[in-house]
Design a protein that fits this description.
683 residues, alpha/beta, seven-stranded parallel beta sheet, seven-stranded mixed beta sheet, 20% helix, globular
């Protein structure tokens, strides 16, 4: 096809970047605008999509999530673990594909001691490259390693400048974090993101190309991964068309039965910032752990305060000073502990030889910002108290002790401030994020180039840290339920999630004003892997449901055909987006009343009876019909019901939240309900 549009077979060969053949039929090529326009008119071409640059989103976890203690080595017996980890041999037959920045292959997390043979269904490979020897670096743990850069090189003009971080033209990653999964799961790494400058060299730019990303999806489908973990997103609201990578590449992975787990992004706590909003994706928010690192600060006036830090000692006792942007450059702070408010950068302080920094900030639970010196984090109230002491004392002093570790109460789970929030700006009737998992100060494997690292490990934060937690859980669940669809896994996680922390305390959402978390903060709640094993009922979906979604969104037949890779026609009348069989109900614009439909599939005992329990949002009346679901045989596993929502509000409102639960006395299948009243003004 290319040869027919270009001058010669040689030119066509040079133009070719990738051929896509496993998830969908297509190719990536370097073309001029006029050439692309000509090819788009070819009768066998559904659509021509321009390459885009995307951006990367970047211990205690299993205890918090009620999974038993993980053995200290792969050769340890699984008899010491219980529940989901025990029942799945800690995921030894699962294959997790990670589309990200690559890996540091010498990391201890890739030790394959005690692992059995690589699963026979695996058909991928390890590709050699710069400082990456496929024979040496891949093993029974790291079973796949590929890298994709041709799309980025085409975008950057065949060469690109790296940032100050070392980059390797291979799957080796100099700065990224190894984002794992289940303890014994096999890892296949697909490197699509690179530490690059923008074309004009002005600084770190987008480092992931859609052409590269689609090829990674295509290969992962062929290779036989069980689940894909993705920490990449486009921009909002620009990247909202059906040619987004999460639409095309992820859609085809899901259509092949591969769940795709994606980061919600780190743009919180503002509303409508959640990314990766396609309904076939499982979109992950980030929470804290029930862990804190209290650090004692003793002032010279005998006042004792507590902040948080990763300071391991020895104790620091010295003078205390205040640094701000106006007087800081003239302040004598060498050898002192310095108070800094988060309105001022700590960078100048780093060059002044300070003994440590007390950093006053909005609470966000991130304690790993400083690397060259001890950094203790406090809130504004304590910062103001310390500042008052400094300004009223001739020679203020402070003593900082090493941090201690506190797990369990009074520390409790919170939605992280940075975690992106709903409602979904692309499709308001589709609840995003779907679920939350720990993503703050997570112990992770780091490369030697990472300033956070110590002996190959360090703490990292982001929705990209929460994403692999859920990927690992799905890998475990898929070992027990290999016939479940990606939608069934999503439903199992959402309907069984914790709405309070495992300790029973409320889950708050960090932000400018701390508040109780709602579905726009954490979707269904905090993931509860043990309960997801046996959810009772699931809200299932397949390809036809996703096609109906696109039709309900108003995409025309040709746009939908781009995604499917084949000609498609929407049904008449157009489906309602409210009827999409999600494990949630979100009504963004009710004026009087609306009725929607859901169906549930019984994955529990064949003979079961479920009754509806309704918690209506404020000012909204929910009516379910029928109120009892009776599953009586193997042939009657799917039952439908309707939900009528009626508003009593006479003015426009924000969202109010409730829930719908189906219970048989053993299983509580709970979905969040979010409703917003919008009154049409008649002229």
């Amino acid at each position: 096809m290319l040869e027919s549009f270009l001058d010669s077979k040689e030119d066509a060969h040079k133009s070719m970047i990738y051929s896509y053949q496993h998830g969908f039929s297509g190719f990536a090529a370097l073309l001029t605008s006029s050439q692309a326009n000509k090819i788009s008119d070819h009768p066998e071409v559904i659509h021509v999509i321009p390459n885009r640059i995307l951006k990367l989103q970047t211990t205690r976890t299993w205890d918090l999530l009620d999974l038993s203690q993980i053995p200290t080595s792969f050769s340890s017996s699984t008899t010491s673990v219980k529940g989901l980890l025990h029942d799945t041999n800690m995921g030894s037959e699962a294959i997790i594909g990670v589309i990200d920045t690559g890996i540091w292959p010498e990391s201890k997390v890739f030790n394959d001691q005690g692992l059995g043979p690589i699963p026979k269904r695996w058909s991928g490979k390890c590709e050699p490259g710069e400082q990456f020897n496929a024979t040496i670096h891949c093993n029974k743990k790291l079973i796949g390693a590929k890298y994709y850069v041709n799309g980025l090189l085409a975008e950057m003009g065949e060469t690109f400048k790296t940032t100050t971080v070392r980059e390797f033209k291979s799957n080796r990653d100099a700065l990224g974090t190894v984002r794992g999964g289940a303890p014994r799961a096999r890892i296949a790494s697909y490197k699509v993101c690179w530490n690059t400058m923008q074309k004009d060299g002005t600084g770190p730019g987008g480092s992931c190309s859609t052409a590269d990303m689609w090829k990674a999806f295509d290969d992962a489908i062929h290779d036989g991964v069980d689940v894909l973990s993705v920490s990449i997103s486009g921009d909002l609201p620009e990247d909202t068309e059906v040619d987004k990578p999460d639409f095309v590449g992820a859609f085809h992975a899901v259509s092949k039965g591969i769940p795709v787990v994606a980061a919600a992004s780190n743009e919180g706590p503002k509303a409508q910032t959640v990314a990766n909003a396609a309904p076939w994706l499982l979109t992950i928010a980030a929470t804290t752990l029930d862990r804190s690192f209290p650090t004692k600060i003793a002032l010279g006036n005998k006042q004792t305060l507590f902040g948080e830090s990763l300071f391991t000692g020895p104790e620091i006792s010295t003078g205390l000073a205040y640094w701000d942007s106006e007087s800081g450059n003239n302040a004598d702070v060498k050898g002192k502990i310095v108070l800094v408010f988060d309105t001022t950068s700590t960078y100048p302080v780093e060059t002044k030889g300070v003994a440590g920094v007390i950093y006053a900030q909005h609470p966000d639970d991130i304690v790993d910002r400083c690397h060259a010196f001890p950094c203790i984090y406090i809130d504004y109230d304590l910062g103001t108290d310390i500042l008052q002491y400094i300004r009223t004392t001739r020679s203020p002093t402070a003593r900082i002790s090493a941090a201690t570790t506190l797990t369990g109460l009074p520390a409790t789970t919170k939605v992280a401030e940075f975690s992106a929030r709903g409602p979904n700006s692309v499709s308001p009737a589709i609840l995003k994020p779907d679920i939350a998992a720990p993503g703050v100060s997570i112990l992770a494997a780091l490369s030697p180039f990472d300033p956070n690292g110590h002996d190959g490990f360090g703490l990292d934060s982001g929705t990209s840290m929460a994403t692999p937690v859920v990927s690992g859980i799905i890998a475990l669940l898929k070992s027990l339920h290999p016939d479940w669809s990606p939608a069934a896994f999503r439903s199992a996680l959402v309907t069984t999630a914790w709405r309070t922390s495992p300790s029973g305390e409320p889950i708050f959402a960090e932000g400018s004003n701390k508040k109780l978390a709602d579905p726009f903060d954490y979707g269904g709640g905090l993931v509860n892997p043990q309960r997801a094993v046996d959810p009772g009922l699931v809200y299932d979906m397949g390809i036809e449901d996703y096609i109906n979604y696109m039709c309900s969104k108003g995409y025309n037949d040709s746009s939908i055909s781009r995604v499917l890779g084949k000609k498609t026609k929407c049904p008449t009348p157009k489906p309602s987006i409210l009827d999409m069989n999600l494990p949630s109900i979100t009504i963004p614009n009710i004026e009087k009343e609306v009725t929607l439909t859901r169906s549930v599939t019984n994955v529990g005992p064949i003979k079961s009876v479920y009754k509806a329990v309704i918690e209506s949002p404020l000012g909204i009346t929910l009516t379910v019909n029928p109120t009892t679901l009776v599953f009586s045989s193997e042939d009657k596993k799917v039952l439908s019901f309707t939900v009528k929502a009626k508003t009593s509000h006479k003015v426009n409102t924000g969202y109010f939240f409730g829930s719908l639960t189906w219970t048989d006395g053993v299983h509580d299948v709970k979905i969040p309900v979010s409703v917003q009243t919008r009154i049409t003004i008649k002229s």
